[in-house]
Design goal:
five-stranded mixed sheet; alpha/beta; elongated
C-alpha cells in the first residue's frame, strides 16, 4: 500500500512521472530504506528552513519542551521553539527525542545535543517554558537552572500558562458537585467497558443498530475539548449506555450470595429439625434472607392475608 501511495504521489508531478518511467524496471525506489531516506530528507529540509528563519529574523529564540510516554512505553521529549520572523510570532516543532535518563542532567544533555544537531546556539536561547514537573522547573537543580547557566543570560523560566489554567479548571470542576460527578461517571464508564473484552463486546453489540455509535475515549485531565465532546456524545447515546451498563451489571462477580444462604440453612435446619421438608426450609430461608421484603410485610401483613385467603377455601372468610 505504501509503494502504491508513493507512486501515485510521484505520478501527479509530470517531471517525476517522466523520470519514474525512465528508471530501470528493477529500480523501484519504494523499499523501506528508501522511504525512510525520503522522510529524513524532507525532515532535514524543514528543520533547515526553520533554523534559517530564526537566523534571518529575531536571531534569538525561546525553548519549549514537554515529555510524554508513547504507545511503546518509551519516554519521548517534544522540542519546540518560539521566535519572530518578518514581525510574525512563530512557534515551530523541531522534533521528538527519546530520552533514557529522566534526571535534570540527562534531560539537559539531550536538549543541548539536539539543538547543536539542528544548528541552534544555546546562547541565543533567551527564555524557556516547561510544565510544572519538578525535574524541569526546579529552582535549585532543575533543567531550567542548567539551561540558564549554559545560555549565559537570564533566560527566565515560564511555567506553561495552559497547564496553570488546566490546574484551575480541575480545581473548579472538583468544587462543583454536578460537574465532578459527571466527569467521574465518564471515567468510570471508560474504565468499566475497556478493562474487559466481554464488556467491550456487549458495549458494541448493544449499539449495532444505533444511529450514533458511542466510542468512549480515554479520559485526560488536560484535554477539555475532548471532555466536552465526550459529554455531548454521552447525551446523544444515554439510553444505549444505560442499556449496556444494565446488561453488564447483571453479570455476577462471585457466587458468595449462594454460599451465604447455606449459613442460613444451617441455622434453620438444625439436628432437632431433621424432619423439616424442603418446602418449609425454602420458605423460612427466603423470609430470613430477604429481610428487605419480609420486614415490610411485617409492618403491613395485608398482602400476606390476601395471598393466604386465595390459596384455598377457608372456614373464615378473609376476603369480603
Amino acid at each position: 500500500m505504501r509503494q502504491i501511495h508513493i507512486k501515485r504521489r510521484l505520478q501527479k508531478n509530470e517531471k517525476f512521472d517522466k523520470d519514474l518511467k525512465s528508471f530501470p524496471k528493477n529500480a523501484k525506489y519504494t523499499s523501506n530504506i528508501v522511504q525512510n531516506d525520503i522522510l529524513l530528507a524532507s525532515s532535514n529540509i524543514i528543520t533547515q528552513t526553520i533554523v534559517k528563519e530564526v537566523n534571518e529574523g529575531s536571531s534569538v529564540y525561546s525553548l519549549i519542551v514537554v515529555e510524554a510516554r508513547d504507545a511503546s512505553t518509551l519516554e519521548q521529549m517534544s522540542i519546540c521553539i518560539r521566535y519572530v520572523h518578518k514581525s510574525i510570532i512563530k512557534e515551530r516543532f523541531l522534533g521528538f527525542l527519546q530520552v533514557l535518563k529522566l534526571d535534570a542532567h540527562g534531560l539537559t544533555h539531550c536538549i543541548i545535543e539536539f539543538l547543536n544537531a539542528v544548528g541552534l546556539d544555546i546562547e541565543k536561547c533567551i527564555s524557556q517554558s516547561y510544565d510544572g514537573a519538578s525535574v524541569m522547573s526546579g529552582s535549585t537543580n532543575g533543567v531550567q537552572i542548567k539551561i540558564r547557566e549554559l545560555s549565559k543570560n537570564k533566560c527566565p523560566y515560564i511555567h506553561c500558562y495552559a497547564h496553570l489554567l488546566n490546574l484551575v479548571l480541575v480545581d473548579v470542576a472538583k468544587s462543583v458537585e454536578i460537574v465532578d460527578d459527571t466527569i467521574g461517571l465518564l471515567e468510570a464508564i471508560y474504565a468499566f467497558q475497556s478493562s474487559s473484552t466481554l464488556r467491550h463486546g456487549i458495549f458494541s453489540e448493544v449499539q449495532k443498530d444505533c444511529e450514533n455509535v458511542l466510542k468512549v475515549p480515554q479520559h485526560s485531565d488536560t484535554r477539555w475539548v475532548a471532555k466536552y465532546k465526550e459529554i455531548c456524545d454521552m447525551g446523544k447515546s444515554f439510553e444505549e449506555i444505560k442499556s449496556v451498563i444494565e446488561c453488564v451489571l447483571v453479570i455476577p462477580v462471585s457466587s458468595a450470595s449462594a454460599e451465604r444462604s447455606f449459613s442460613t440453612m444451617r441455622r434453620i435446619k438444625i439436628y432437632l429439625r431433621t424432619s423439616m421438608t424442603t418446602t418449609r426450609l425454602h420458605n423460612l430461608a427466603l423470609i430470613s434472607i430477604e429481610r428487605e421484603f419480609s420486614s415490610e410485610l411485617l409492618k403491613d401483613p395485608t398482602k400476606i392475608i390476601d395471598e393466604f385467603a386465595k390459596m384455598k377455601n377457608r372456614r373464615i372468610q378473609f376476603i369480603k
